[in-house]
Amino acid sequence: MKLKDPSLLRDKCYIDGSWISADSGEIFPVTNPANGETIASVPRMGEAETHRAIEAAQAAFSSWKDRTAKERANIVRKWYELIMANQDDLALLMTMEQGKPLAEAKGEVAYGASFVEWFAEECKRVYGDTIPEHLPGRRLVVTKEPIGVVAAITPWNFPIAMITRKCAPAIAAGCTVVVKPAEDTPLCAFALAELAHRAGIPKGVLNIVTGVAKQIGKAMTESTLVRKLTFTGSTPIGKLLMKQCADTVKKTSMELGGNAPFIVFDDADLDAAVEGAMLSKFRNAGQTCVCANRILVQEGVYDAFAEKLTKRVSELKVAPGTTEGSQQGPLINTAAATKVSELINDAVGKGAKTVIGGKPHDLGGNFFAPTVITGVTDDMRIFSEEIFGPVAPLYKFKTEEEAVRMANDTPFGLASYFYSRDIGRVWRVSRALEYGIVGINEGIISNEVAPFGGVKESGVGREGSKYGMEDFLEIKYLCMGGI
Ligand SMILES: NC(=O)C1=CN([C@@H]2O[C@H](COP(=O)(O)OP(=O)(O)OC[C@H]3O[C@@H](n4cnc5c(N)ncnc54)[C@H](OP(=O)(O)O)[C@@H]3O)[C@@H](O)[C@H]2O)C=CC1
Ligand SMILES: O=C(O)CCCC(=O)O
C-alpha cells in the first residue's frame, strides 16, 4: 500500500498518548476483502488493557473539560483540517481494509471529517438556561456539563465516519473517549488517532483499543468510570450491551439495525425514484443500516420501475475498490456473501424472480453481483431481515394504506424513503411512517447537520446535528437561595 505519508499506517493501539502492544504480545491480521491478503497485524487486547485505557481517559478528563470551549474547538478544528489534508491516504487505507471503491472512500473521509468540523463549531454553543424563580429570593440556573469517560464501539461499514460521529461531539463537549473499532477495520481508527495526536488532542483524551470484542465490551460496560456507551452495529449486540450497561446505569446511545422501506407511488417522478434507489440501495455495496431494504412499488408503475432500475443496475461496475471506475467493491467477508445468497435463495424458492444478478460475482471471493428480484412478498425472509448486500427486492402494492402498513411491519425504525409528487400524500405518509428518518423524493439522508437515529429496535439517541451534542452532556440544575 503506497501512502503519501506512510506513518499513517499504524499497527499498535493508542492508549494515553502512546502506541502500545497487547500485554500478551498477541496480534490478529487485518485483511483486504478484495483478495484476502493480510495488510497488517494489530494487537489482540482484552480486559486489562481496556481498563488501563479507561483509567487514562479518566485521568485526562478533568483538565480537558476545564479548557474553554474555544480552546477545545480550535484543537478539534485542527483535527478536521488534518483529516482533510490526508484525505487520499485515509481513503486508501479504508479501501484496503473495508473494500469500498476509492471514490466512495474519499467521500466517507469528507463525510467523517464533516462531523469533526461541525462539532468544533457546535461546542461553542453549549448553552444553559435560566428559569423564572418559583419562590422569592431564589435563582434557578441550568448548566450543561460533559458526561465524563465515553466508551465507543463502532462497526466496519463506515470505518471513519462512525468514529468521528461519536468522538467529535464527545471530545468537543469535554469528554474523553475509549474506542473499540471493528476487528475488520482498525487501521482507519489508528490513523485518526495519529492525526488527533498531531492536532494536539492531549494524551488520554482519545484512546483506541483493538482485540477481543467480548472482553473489551465487558471492561467498558462494567467500569464505573465509564459514564456513557455509544454503539453502532447489529441489534442483538446493541441489546446485549444495553443489558450489560444496566448494572452501572450508564447512559447509552444505540445506532442499530434497519429495515428501510423505499416506497415508489404511482405519482412519483420515476427517473428520480430510480436514481434515489440506486444511491440508497447500492451505496457501500448495500452494507449500510439506512440502505433501502424493501422497495415497495405501486402496481401502476411496478413494471416500468423494475425495467429502469434493472438497466441502471446492469451498468454498475463491480471491481476491487482500487480499480479505476469501480462502483461496487467486495462484501466485507465470506459470511456476508453467504447470507446474501441465502436470502435470495429463500425468496426465489418461495416464488420471487431474479431479473439480474442473484449470485456471487464472476470475480469470485467476496464479490456479489448487483441484483434485482421481483415478485417479492412479505412471507420471505428478505422482508424482515437486514440484507446488508447489493440486492434490490421489489414488492408490489395497491394502495397508500397498504404501503404504509407494509413499511411499518417491522420491529425496526431507522430510515425510510418514499417518492411522490402529491403534496397531501407527502404529509400523510411522512406522519404515518414509524421511523426516525424519512427521505422524501431523496435517497441520501445522511449529513452532519441533521439528526441521525432510529426508533423501535433501531436504537436510542441521535448523532450529528445540534442534538448529537446533547447525548454527551448532562444537565445540572443550580438552585440558589439567599438572594
Ligand atoms: N447498524 C449498523 O450500522 C450495522 C449493522 N450491522 C448488522 O449486523 C450484521 C453483523 O455485522 P457485525 O459486524 O457482526 O456487527 P456487530 O454488531 O457484531 O459488530 C459491531 C461492533 O460491535 C463489536 N462487538 C461484537 N460483539 C461484541 C460484544 N459481545 N461486546 C462488545 N462489542 C462487540 C464488534 O467487534 P468485532 O468487529 O471485533 O467483532 C464491532 O466493533 C450485519 O450483517 C448487519 O446486518 C453491522 C454493522 C453496522
Ligand atoms: O450504516 C451505518 O452504520 C450507519 C451509517 C450510515 C450513514 O451515516 O449514512
TrEMBL record:
The keyword DNA damage does not apply. Keywords: Oxidoreductase. The active site is at E255. Coiled coil: none annotated. Residues 19-477 form the Aldehyde dehydrogenase domain. Belongs to the aldehyde dehydrogenase family. This is NAD-dependent succinate-semialdehyde dehydrogenase.
